[in-house]
Automatic annotation (TrEMBL):
It comes from Sesamum radiatum. InterPro entries: Phylloplanin-like. Keywords: Signal. This is Phylloplanin. Residues 1-17 form the signal peptide.
Length: 157
């Protein structure tokens, strides 16, 4: 049974890693030398920034500053949520080689606008943070675009 689980996990890892590796190999042969990180964020006015008990009817968190922080703490992209709590973050072009870093392990989202901004009953200190989950990688013009989404925000005091 343990061997079956190990084989299944190995297959899942390969299925997720293969599209990114294929895009990077294609990029090297087609002259793509830069990559862009793209993250779509929907933020809600709740203690953890995620949907509440009302699902999509949860009030959004407008005008929140969202930061994409990578590696040594560098901010590589910023965006402000719109009236629906949605923000789109795009990094500046990053050199692909020697190897494009994996943002899901090297980057995180930080919301540094206090929660009390959208609801005075929520904390006026702290911030929200989320790791990233890989969605896809594709070529767009002269760039390789890697798309990610938040795994789920947590409140950090």
């Amino acid at each position: 049974m343990a061997l079956k689980s190990l084989v299944l996990v190995s297959l899942l890892v390969a299925a997720v890693a293969a599209p990114m590796a294929q895009a990077l190999i294609a990029a090297s042969t087609q002259g793509h030398t830069f990559g862009v990180v793209h993250v779509d964020v929907t933020l809600y006015c709740t203690p953890d920034g995620n949907t509440g008990p009302f699902g999509e009817a949860t009030p959004p968190f407008p005008n929140a500053m969202v930061l994409l922080q990578c590696g040594d703490g560098s901010i590589v992209a910023t965006a402000t949520t719109n009236g629906f709590g949605i923000a789109y973050l795009h990094s500046d072009p990053i050199p692909l080689f020697p190897f494009f870093p994996l943002p899901e392990s090297d980057c995180k989202l930080i919301v540094n606008t206090t929660l009390s901004t959208c609801d005075s009953s929520l904390p006026s200190t702290g911030c929200l943070q989320s790791d990233l989950m890989f969605i896809e990688t594709f070529a767009l013009g002269g760039f390789i675009v890697s798309s990610f989404k938040p795994t789920g925000f947590t409140f950090i005091l």
